[in-house]
Amino acid sequence: MSAVPDILPARHGHALLLAGIILVGLNLRPALSSISPVLEDIRLTLGLSAVTAGWLTTLPVFCLGLFAPLAPLLARRIGPERGILVALAVLAGGMLLRTRFGIPGLFAGTVIAGAGIGIAGVLLPGIVKRNFPAQADLMTGVYTMALCAGAALAAGFTVPLAQYFGSWRPAIASWALLAVLAALLWLPQVRHAHTLNSQAQVPARLWREPLAWQVTLFMGLQSSTAYIVFGWLPSILQARGLTPLAAGGWMSVSVMMQLITSLGGPWLARRARDQRGPIVLMLTLTAAGLFGCLYAPATQLPLWAVVLGLGQGGNFSLALSLLVLRTRNATTAAQLSGMAQGLGYTLAALGPLTIGMVREWSGSWQATGPLLALIVLGALIAGLAAGRDRKIGHD
């Protein structure tokens, strides 16, 4: 009889933690995907050049890598739970700042929001590994679904919000409310915060692990295609003849399709002999979707947007799954997460930046096709190496 009261609070605590993880995940992409649908309005309002406006799509990704090393420092000093609460507060403040003080506020807020996302994104995989060790693959899928849903919501609703308010500023600022809501739901986790001293930095042995570098490269290169889509897909679709509202809507549909494979990817990863087959499948879908959006007849754009979303949802969920599947414990998972996301996102930021430059120099989105092919090929090579059934770290 006495066991029942002990079980119920534990189940309640896990349910609350799961809800918190989902809501935190929902917040880790709107700051990125809310900009591109209204990028042209921002550019015209503030008098930005095309290259300067392009930095708005690239800078947040650089920040994900730049600020990722702060995550293990916070985990050591205040615990990952409190670290996520701090990250949510930073994220909300950055999204609000983007709408104030003109161009300086826009770019400063973008940097601050990117810092919050980078910190929270590194801390969450370690919490998943620690609290749900037997369901780590399923939880990774749920977390990835939340990321995709947040990106889709921002991509699909920012333009209607801008039309409702009559300006892009309140439209992008409104996503700060979602971060505040997540912080409130996350507060109960702070009472049970853990500090993880061994997470203070990525250990030297991890830098010498070829497998850690393979996971990092796969994380970075597949993320590069994702942030190219977040930054430039609406512009590509508008160049193909769609209205801004339709372009944002189809980007939202594409990201919503990621929900299917973001849960299915980890399921395949766990049940396959290793992860190479699922990685090849998802990268093939991604390549087909990208080239379909660039070169296929305009009437087929909805089809290729769906294919692209299916591939990218699987790519990202598989990359996150590798952080769990290639390690033996929560500490090593957090350390690998810091390395893979810190370096990986820095590498990923070069994708949208370079694509924007090629578009500016050539005057054509179709000219970016060879560069996209190289990025996908690099992701395939890294993924085939990282997908083998091996582990790093020690029990």
Task: Supply the key terms.
mainly alpha; Growth Hormone, Chain: A; 395 residues; disordered N terminus; 81% helix
How would you describe this protein?
This protein is an all-alpha fold. It has one domain: Up-down Bundle (Growth Hormone, Chain: A). Helices cover 81% and strands 0% of the residues. The chain has helices at residues 3-26, 30-33, 39-46, 50-67, 70-77, 80-97, 102-131, 136-165, 168-173, 176-190, 204-207, 210-239, 244-271, 276-295, 301-325, 330-362, 369-386. The longest helix is centred in the last third of the chain and has 33 residues, at 330-362. It starts with a helix and ends in a 9-residue tail after the last helix. The relative contact order is 0.15.
Largest sheet: none
Along the chain, the helix and strand elements come as HHHHHHHHHHHHHHHHH
Q: How many distinct domains?
A: 1
Please provide the count of β strands. 0
CATH superfamily, by name, is: MFS general substrate transporter like domains
Please state the CA-atom Rg, rounded to the nearest Å. 20 Å
CATH class: Mainly Alpha
Q: Roughly how much helix do the residues carry, as a percent range?
A: over 70%
Low-confidence stretches: 1-9
Beta-strand percentage?
under 5%
Second-tier CATH architecture: Up-down Bundle
Number of helices: 17
* Overall mean confidence score, pLDDT: 85
State the distance separating the first and last CA atoms: 35 Å
Which fold name fills CATH's third level, the topology?
Answer: Growth Hormone, Chain: A
The SS-based structural class is mainly alpha
Shape: globular
Transmembrane segments: 49-71, 83-101, 107-128, 140-165, 171-190, 211-233, 245-267, 279-297, 303-324, 336-355, 367-387
GO molecular function: transmembrane transporter activity
Keywords: Membrane, Transmembrane, Transmembrane helix
Protein name: Cyanate MFS transporter
